[in-house]
Amino acid sequence: MGDEEAELAIIESGADDYHSEDGEYIIYCKSDSLSGVKDYLVAQSFEILSSELVFLPKEEINLDEERSAKIIKLLESLDNLDDVTSVSSNLA
């Protein structure tokens, strides 16, 4: 499948956005569309390497270097906790 055909299939799948990275497509859709988008692309002969829900910030924030360092340290500390499986942030 060529790039043009792949992009058309992605658009027809109901995906909200996509981009190509190292010959692979990163595809974004709403959480309630994930299964349908995935099923459509599999039916179009796409190989799905992974499929997951992620939190994307609606708005990113920029902080000065000192505050950024503190937030990053906090996020790393939270991520290192055994009970924490994922940490998200809107820090740019």
TrEMBL record:
InterPro entries hit by this protein: TACO1_YebC-like_2nd/3rd_dom, Transcrip_reg_TACO1-like, Transcrip_reg_TACO1-like_dom3, YebC-like
Record-linked SUPFAM superfamilies: YebC-like (SSF75625)
Pfam families per the UniProt record, alphabetical: Transcrip_reg
Superkingdom per UniProt: Bacteria
Residues annotated as domain TACO1/YebC-like second and third: 3-91
PANTHER family in the record: TRANSLATIONAL ACTIVATOR OF CYTOCHROME C OXIDASE 1
Listed name of the protein: Putative transcriptional regulatory protein
Protein source organism: candidate division WS2 bacterium ADurb.Bin280
Upper lineage: Bacteria, candidate division WS2
